[in-house]
């Protein structure tokens, strides 16, 4: 396969400014997600609780799970 030289695209100052604004908006959105980290921690707590319940259920005998004991 023959490779060709890349096409050069001339950028104006306005193009550069648009890219800078887009990057700035993306970083602000990312920081907003980090603010919601407390919500993520509460979700992780729910998963931890579910895992503990699964382990407790697995530790029970068959009769205990069926309510016979």
TrEMBL record:
Top-rank taxon, per record: Eukaryota
UniProt-recorded name of the protein: Uncharacterized protein
């Amino acid at each position: 396969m023959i490779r060709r030289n890349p096409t050069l695209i001339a950028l104006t100052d306005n193009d550069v400014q648009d890219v800078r604004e887009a990057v700035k908006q993306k970083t602000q959105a990312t920081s907003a997600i980090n603010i919601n980290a407390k919500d993520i921690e509460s979700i992780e707590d729910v998963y931890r609780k579910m895992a503990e319940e699964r382990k407790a259920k697995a530790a029970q005998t068959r009769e205990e799970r069926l309510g016979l004991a």
